[in-house]
Amino acid sequence: MMRGEVLHVWSPTIFFKAILLSLRWSDNLAIAMHSHGFSENQTRTHYQTYAIPRWNWGVAVGTFLALQVLVWYFR
């Protein structure tokens, strides 16, 4: 149905389609949250933070810098 149509940024067809898609996605999101037992005023039950030691950051930055030097040297 859209073959041959010229759409511009200011075209209301694009905005209408975006509004319809967002309404459909919000309905699907609400159904998914309800099926997973989400409650608005409850605390999170499976939320955990994982601490990354400082030496891991050093290894990651050192590896990145070493790779950059190797790429620069062998180009």
Structural notes for this entry:
There is one protein chain. The relative contact order is 0.05. The model has no long low-confidence stretch (mean pLDDT 84). The protein is flat. It has two helices and no strands. By secondary structure, the chain is mainly alpha-helical.
Which features would summarize this protein structure in a list?
75 residues; mainly alpha; 2 helices
Mean pLDDT: 84
Query: How much helix, percentage-wise, in residues?
Result: 55-70%
Largest sheet report: none
Radius of gyration: 25 Å
Order of helices and strands: HH
- Distance between the ends: 51 Å
Any idea what the shape is?
A: flat
Distinct helical segment count: 2
Report the β-strand fraction as a percent range: under 5%
Topology of helices and strands:
Elements: H1 12-35, H2 54-73
Nutshell version of this structure?
The chain has about 80 residues and is an all-alpha fold.
